[in-house]
Amino acid sequence: MAEGDAFFERHEAPGGTLVALRGDWQVANAAALDRDLAALGRGATGAPLSFDLAGIDGLDTVGAFLLLRAAHALHASLENVPRHFGAVLEHVEKAAAASDFPERPHRHFHVAEWLDHLGEQVHRIVATAADLLAFFGRIITTFGRLIVHPSHIRGVALMSQLQHNGWAALPIVGMLNFLIGVVIAYQGSGQLAQFGAQILTVNLLGISILRELGGLITAIIVAGRSGSAFTAEIGAMRVNEEIDAMRVLGIDPVEVLVMPRLIGLMISLPLLTIFANFVGIAGGSMMLWLTLDISPPVFLDQLRSALYPLTFWLGVIKSPFFAFVIVMVGCHAGLAVERSAESVGQFTTMSVVRSIFLVIVIDALFSIIFAELNV
Asked: How far apart are CA 132 and CA 120, in angstroms?
């Protein structure tokens, strides 16, 4: 077998198998040699095997380790070792003796390992759910305390959260919901045109955006935009030991860090949802005007006949619940960050995924409740 500047040749003999080594067994050829030696091990027949080192031109510690590991795994002997390479082999053998020449890991599927991994994942999910439930209780307790003592609400922090999570989010929320309205109108009109019912695209657009997509898409955007920011900001404070300093000073981190974000987002997200609903319907109306020549007055008349008074509020009423979940998950992840920059990134990603998952779960629960109530 040959690969680059280092290779070996296998010769079968009556007394066993001889593997003649050639070339430079050095770090530059380590990847190829490791692969070829692994293939040699898979093709072993069980006959006595020996390595002939007479043809080696160069040998460093990496090449010596690969050779000795293969010899150990195949129970092979070393023959014709050049004197100037003997010291390298002896040094590597002594250094690797403590680890007993770890072999290349072999991945085998075992039911016990799979069940063990499954159990670990279930335990982790249950532990996370329990922690979130405990954190939910802390938030409710702190919120009740602020209702009794409203002077403890930090007005400057609250206004800052309204600015960052409300006003600053309008462009991205508006743009995405506008495009979603355009897509629904375009795709819906194409399907309904098969039945000559293009005008019902207005009904499809209004109901889908007002009841579901406006609030859901806005919550997902906010979870990715603001929820990740909550985790990163609080996580950075955790890494810098600012959270510990607050506790030493007798300051409740939940009251100072979580509550302004919670109150701010529970105010901002319903307003963003209302804005998203109007922008999404405007985008769909524009597309229908351009493609089906449905003018805005005709569009509004059809939309008014398709909706009933609660339709608008059914989408908005879910927004405070979405906001609560986004803040709870984001801040909980931030407070759980370990004291490393890598941990901040991991928990930020984790918080976004959990927030979006729980937002969709809550939206599905509301859909079931509304269906049972016939609204």
From this structure: 18
Separation of alpha carbons 288 and 200, rounded Å: 11
Find tokens 């619940």 and name the residue: 321
161: tokens are 């959260």
pLDDT range class, residue 319, cuts 50, 70, 90: very high
Residue 109 lies inside a defined structural domain of this protein: no
Question: What CATH number does residue 37 fall under?
Answer: 3.30.750.24
Q: What is the DSSP string of 288-353?
A: HHHHT---HHHHHHHHHHH--HHHHHHHHTTHHHHHHHHHHHHHHHHHT--SSHHHHHHHHHHHHH
Q: Does the residue 113 lie in any domain?
A: no
The DSSP result for 138-200, as a single string, is: HHHHHHHHHHH-GGGS-HHHHHHHHHHHTGGGHHHHHHHHHHHHHHHHHHHHHHHGGGT-GGG
Largest CA-CA distance found in the chain, in angstroms, rounded: 97
Q: Report the chain's C-alpha Rg in angstroms.
A: 33
Reduced to 3 states (helix: H, G, I; strand: E, B; else coil), residue 367 is helix
Which amino acid type is present at position 351?
A: S
Cα–Cα distance for residue pair 32/66, rounded to 1 Å: 11
- For the chain, the domain total comes to 2
Asked whether residue 170 carries a pLDDT value surpassing 90, the answer given is yes
